[in-house]
Write a structure and sequence with these properties.
Length: 272
């Protein structure tokens, strides 16, 4: 995404709305309900609690040599903490639990996710900072069978996806005739393909580029299989705290103007 496109996306101010019932139910337990924004709590304790899965290379993943988080989103959240004068406290979570984790106040912000209406029912989204799309990644031994998206939607085809991700919903929508193999963390869709338990996995364009560099047995499909489901990526937080939401949105706007997200894209998502 170039700088002009990023500025246009950020200008939309994409924020997930809350239902009245959800907002009322949260009033009794959240910091904002007591008149204290999460921003105030973060500054007082000196740490910002960031939820992340650590399984989405190159956005958020664990470096096995140092057992530390790395990636595009990890650097972004680390910079947010530095610019706020606090430290990051990482909170490990799973994709299927990110909305519940926000609702239970386990973390102050989630490190980055695709914007969906389902997630917006239970959490707020910041302004977007990036854009994802979805692509199928196949075992090289099976790739010649799938020249189009339609070819994947066939009896006997196994499509592996990580449970709780947008790809699980997309796979069921795109491939109703195929067998959707939903795997729970720490298992991943691409591991099922490598193990021969599925022919393909559906993932983001950014993870796909990383996977085919790491594993020679995997490939992107050619021909008429172009990316689908373009969608913005944003950070997630609780719905009841406009002070914290406004603060992070201001930070996103400033960092975008400085070229910060473009620098991260060049580092973690090189074009070649």
């Amino acid at each position: 995404m170039n700088r002009r496109d990023l500025a246009r996306v950020i200008g939309t101010g994409f924020v997930g709305g809350a239902t009245l019932a959800a907002a009322q139910s949260a009033q009794a337990q959240t910091p904002a309900a007591a008149g204290r924004s999460r921003l105030q709590q973060i500054l007082e304790r000196g740490t910002v609690r960031v939820g992340t899965t650590g399984d989405f290379n190159p956005m958020s993943f664990r470096d096995t040599t140092t057992n530390s988080y790395q990636g595009f989103d990890v650097e972004a959240m680390t910079q947010l903490a530095a610019d706020s004068g606090v430290r990051v406290e990482w909170v490990q979570t799973e994709w299927a639990q990110i909305v519940a984790g926000i609702g239970a106040n386990r973390f102050d912000i989630f490190s980055g996710a695709s914007v969906t209406m389902a997630r917006a029912r239970g959490a707020a989204f910041t302004a977007p900072y990036f854009e994802f799309s979805s692509v199928p990644v196949a075992a090289k031994s099976a790739a010649s069978r799938f020249a189009t998206w339609e070819a994947i939607n066939a009896d006997g085809v196994r499509v592996a996806v990580s449970m709780g991700t947008v790809f699980e919903d997309q796979a069921r929508a795109h491939f109703p005739r195929a067998r959707i193999v939903s795997v729970q963390a720490p298992a991943t869709g691409f591991q099922e393909v490598l193990a021969g338990r599925a022919e393909l996995t559906l993932t983001s364009n950014v993870e796909a580029s990383s996977l085919i560099r790491r594993f020679d047995a995997l490939t992107l499909l050619a021909g008429n299989v172009q990316p689908r489901n373009r969608r913005p990526a944003a950070f997630m937080m609780a719905q009841d705290d406009p002070v914290w939401l406004n603060y992070v949105n201001t930070w996103i706007a400033l960092k975008a103007r400085e070229g910060f997200f473009e620098e991260l894209e060049n580092k973690w998502l090189p074009k070649s």
